[in-house]
User: Which sequence fits this backbone?
């Protein structure tokens, strides 16, 4: 089997637990992401999602294990891996436009000033920011607008991998919905590989090709990789009518509500703790079972 | 009356003017009473003392003096008789020289201390001991080592303005949010670019606050320093006019010290507003 575009191999993270011992956040986590894939990772707060993302971004070093992108080991941050942080992380002394040109200029240092500005404006308009608003400082923008700027900054840089850490966590439901749609639109046009953290099940189903489910920490595992068998383009009002929607949703709710707890606290018993692939499809002719038990459940040893 | 509605600022300005006028009137009125109260003794009359210039002058005299001085601020009639403009010019020159030298040392050093916990820990004891020393206490040592009164005055300004700038720069740099530094890191900015494009603007409000405190202290200290080293400058001028018992000039120059100090401060207040940002 060929290696995926992004491969996470035996990633282990430990922290001192403050009482002289060590806290193992996750151990031997192993999974891959294909090029152009949109992957969401779901898990309870504190299970280690941000820790994984910071390692992928190169902002933190794992205790052991490697991350390879395009076959090369990741070390340190890079323009090839764009990050959208939960708290937007815009530079407050720069206008919305300048926050984006800041990134574009870092990515394409040879471009002329006008080209950089044009490019930045194109991406800002893709997330619905046009006209005078782009000259406002982040403090003069609403939370939703700030997150749009942050998304525009990330996409404008054409990173090979885009990392989003609960990008809509701080937004109200309506704004969240609009920006999710914008994210889908902008992603659809770029075929960007995206790795996104969320704790919102519906958001994950709407956006992802695949959802990684994480059990609770300590010793959290990336336990399952659930394929979202709902065709694109997706639309929040229509997907709920798709026969697979509730089956998938129930499966996710079951996992987060029950199994994530049952799995927690167990030390890794394998070299590669890779997630079990789960495919739920009720559209096929052979479909008969009514409960949300996955039709195909590969076991990987 | 309801027809006249003044804004808060206008009312405050009006009140200021009233207070000024009333204050000046009381001062003016108090002067003759004072000369009456201090009846001259025989001895004083014989010695020619107690003439009007030795007493506290009324504000009208000070205003006349101000008019006379400010209409020709740059005249130069020998070492003991120079225009107020020239004297203030000397003081500002010393303040700015010492201050700029201090900024050149304090801001890069503050950056280093703010970025590196080990540099902070290593330098902190020195800073804590050196900072509380009155700048004028350095004067004898400076005069002995530098052997030049001009340079010694500049050194004293240097040493008094360095601390607020150093401490505020370190504090501002250390307080830059990791998120912003992470933005720089994920955009692969080198350390120099990170320093200038992220850390400097993020810490600028704190740094400028330190610079504003420093210029205030420097302006306080220069007057005392010039009284000690003599020769030129507004501090020397005040002292010299006191020796001449010309209290009108003393009061006038005190006012000028206040005005220049205020102008220096408002220049930095302007800078502060220019670099301020809301999170
Ligand atoms: N720098 C650190 N030092 C010690 N413990 C940490 C550190 N960073 C994260 N942790 C711990 O690791 C666990 C996972 O944290 P995090 O990745 O932020 O969770 P999530 O993003 O899934 O909510 C938490 O228990 C947290 O307390
Ligand atoms: Mg998190």
Assistant:
């Amino acid at each position: 089997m060929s290696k995926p575009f992004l491969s996470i191999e035996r990633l282990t993270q430990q922290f001192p637990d403050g009482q002289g011992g060590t806290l193992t956040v996750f151990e031997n986590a192993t999974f891959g992401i294909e090029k152009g894939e949109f992957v969401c990772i779901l898990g309870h707060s504190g299970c280690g999602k941000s820790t994984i993302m910071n390692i992928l971004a190169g902002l933190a070093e794992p205790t052991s294990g490697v991350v390879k992108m395009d076959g090369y080991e990741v070390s340190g941050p890079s323009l090839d891996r764009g990050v959208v942080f939960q708290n937007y992380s815009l530079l407050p002394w720069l206008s919305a436009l300048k926050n984006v040109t800041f990134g574009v200029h870092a990515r394409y240092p040879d471009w002329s000033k006008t080209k950089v500005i044009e490019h930045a404006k194109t991406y800002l308009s893709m997330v619905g920011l046009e006209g005078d608003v782009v000259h406002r400082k982040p403090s003069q923008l609403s939370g939703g607008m700030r997150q749009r700027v942050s998304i525009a900054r990330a996409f404008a840089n054409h990173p090979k991998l885009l990392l989003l850490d609960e990008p809509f966590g701080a937004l109200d439901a309506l704004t969240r919905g609009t920006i999710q749609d914008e994210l889908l639109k902008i992603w659809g046009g770029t075929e960007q590989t995206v790795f996104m953290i969320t704790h919102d099940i519906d958001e994950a189903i709407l956006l992802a090709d695949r959802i990684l489910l994480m059990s609770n920490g300590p010793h959290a595992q990336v336990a399952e990789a659930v394929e979202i068998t709902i065709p694109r383009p997706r639309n929040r009002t229509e997907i709920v009518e798709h026969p697979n929607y509730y089956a998938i949703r129930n499966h996710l709710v079951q996992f987060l509500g029950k199994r994530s707890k049952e799995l927690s606290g167990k030390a890794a018993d394998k070299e590669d703790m890779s997630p079990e692939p789960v495919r739920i499809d009720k559209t096929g002719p052979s479909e008969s079972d009514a409960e949300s038990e996955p039709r195909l459940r590969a076991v990987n040893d | 009356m309801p027809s006249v509605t003044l804004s808060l600022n206008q009312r405050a300005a009006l009140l200021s003017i009233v207070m000024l006028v009333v204050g000046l009137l009381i001062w003016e009125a108090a002067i003759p009473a004072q000369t009456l109260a201090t009846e001259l003794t025989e001895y004083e009359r014989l010695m020619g003392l107690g003439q009007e210039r030795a007493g506290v002058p009324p504000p009208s005299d000070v205003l006349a003096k101000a008019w006379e001085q400010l209409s020709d601020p740059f005249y130069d009639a020998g070492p003991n008789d120079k225009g107020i403009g020239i004297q203030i010019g000397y003081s500002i020159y010393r303040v700015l020289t010492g201050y700029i030298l201090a900024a050149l040392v304090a801001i890069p050093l503050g950056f280093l201390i703010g970025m590196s916990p080990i540099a902070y820990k290593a330098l902190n004891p020195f800073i804590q001991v050196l900072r509380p020393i009155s700048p004028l206490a350095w004067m004898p040592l400076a005069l002995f080592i530098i052997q030049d009164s001009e340079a010694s005055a500049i050194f004293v300004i240097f040493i008094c303005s360095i601390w607020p700038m150093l401490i505020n720069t370190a504090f501002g740099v250390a307080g830059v949010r990791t998120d912003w530094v992470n933005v720089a890191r994920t955009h692969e900015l080198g350390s120099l670019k990170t320093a200038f494009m992220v850390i400097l603007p993020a810490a600028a409000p704190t740094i400028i606050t330190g610079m504003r405190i420093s210029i205030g202290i420097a302006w306080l200290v220069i007057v005392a320093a010039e009284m000690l080293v003599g020769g030129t400058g507004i501090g020397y001028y005040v002292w010299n006019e006191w020796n001449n018992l010309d209290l009108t000039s003393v009061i006038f120059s005190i006012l000028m010290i206040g005005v220049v100090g205020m102008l220096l401060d408002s220049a930095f207040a302007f800078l502060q507003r220019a670099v301020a940002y809301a999170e």
